[in-house]
């Protein structure tokens, strides 16, 4: 099944690297479903290219104990952080694309199959059992419940159209690179010379 993409779409990992889209980017937005590998990819790119890593979960959305910040405060924090010159931001929420996408040099859409995303969150939960992971706000103990699994299972049908529309509306000229497999993700890292 063909999946819709935003107009600024970059079709191939090799093309993205050859054109310097990632290597020359000062501001990278990484979006996609939970469990797909957004945070891991973002942190590797941040270290390699000396970009400030911004986690929507840790820095914007959550307070300790899984309490969400007020929406106005979330937006204020985003605007404050994207004013910086060099960053990589990991987080999807299309409701803030109007401020995040136009400021981005490229969007990397980690668009993995849903079974892989489910596997990702379950293995992450086991790895951080009883603890908060580093890219999550302190006091937000890693958890998996049916509501979260349903969110992941229906993400492509329910949320991807909003991502496509948001990218088209707020960044029609911003390149979008989709990574649809672990092999593509590893190919990108290899081409960029990012260590494992």
From TrEMBL:
Signal peptide: none annotated. It comes from Ensifer canadensis. This is AAA family ATPase. PANTHER family: MODULATES DNA TOPOLOGY (PTHR37816:SF3), YALI0E33011P (PTHR37816). Gene3D superfamilies: P-loop containing nucleotide triphosphate hydrolases. Transmembrane segments: none annotated.
